[in-house]
């Protein structure tokens, strides 16, 4: 039984990933801002879930989460750096608080969680970072969010180089358009957003949190035992095609 630490585990991609690891029989340390939603997750497998309500950007957060894993389950095998923020503005419209928000939560906190986890990990452990398709290409209006996700891809590569000799693998997943509580309203009601993201995705459906959970669990598993430094794109073909399709699915 592996011990898995997931940030932002209470809903959306984090919740789906937590449930998939639990279904595979693993122990879980789940952190999130919402204590209520964490308790709901804990009820899925009370004897295999430890929860911690925290703000990941707080200085004590990474060590507190790792310590909880070690004290409760005696080990830490997998870190899933899932928590993050979106809804960017173009850089020329961003103020310093916007810049700080994205870099503090999407980059600084992620690096600090990796650092804390690596101190507790041994050969066979794995880190999976959640990046984004916007980390690979420029996109109008993606602003500091895109910069932060590109940083996560770079962090993944660097950690794979540094810690591969110790038998620790580091990979990332780059989601495309995924329906979550944070994106549902824009998917359903924002026509411009649908033109940018839905109409340009070749595959004829929107992604689900379970799609990302499957990719994360694969990269953390022995089936991916010789994969490290890789970012797995899960986007229905948006990144490679990114062209409009009509209702029949034809370009």
TrEMBL record:
Classification via CDD domains: SDR_c
Cited InterPro entries: KR_dom, NAD(P)-bd_dom_sf, Sc_DH/Rdtase_CS, SDR_DHRS6-like, SDR_fam
Gene Ontology MF, one: oxidoreductase activity
Keywords, ordered alphabetically: Oxidoreductase
Record domain Ketoreductase: where: 2-176
SUPFAM superfamilies: NAD(P)-binding Rossmann-fold domains
Protein family (similarity comment): Belongs to the short-chain dehydrogenases/reductases (SDR) family.
Protein name listed in UniProt: NAD(P)-dependent dehydrogenase (Short-subunit alcohol dehydrogenase family)
Taxonomic source organism: Chelatococcus asaccharovorans
